[in-house]
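Contributing new records

If you add data, match the layout below exactly. Sequence lines come first and carry their own label; structure lines follow with theirs. Keep one chain per record. Anything else will be rejected by the validation script.
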Amino acid sequence: MTIPEETTSARGAPAGFGRRLVAFVVDGALAVLIALVTGHRPPSGDYNFVVYAAFLLIELAFVALAGQTPGMRAAGIAVVRFADGGRPALHWVFVRTVLLATVVVALITDSSGRALHDRAAGTTTLRLR
């Protein structure tokens, strides 16, 4: 699978910042909902931890099982292996999620639009539509 060097709106192109932001907002809202449903309310430290943990668990479970989180599905993007476009192995999804937990690596991208956590895990996030 060849990844285009420049960002385009074509299917299979690297997901842009806007689509990633939509996915993040949707997944973040789900994490907040999980915290509220489990009885955690702001401004407690428990609430913050539950939201953070729920977000990471959503990321890990859904990317491992389906290749995309609910937010990614809504934004029309998915995580695939960079080398061949297949589903990433569980251990690489775990590495990607742990690195995503630092937030900083998710904000730093290379010239092709791949974030550092994707590069380290051998994955990329592509547009599906």
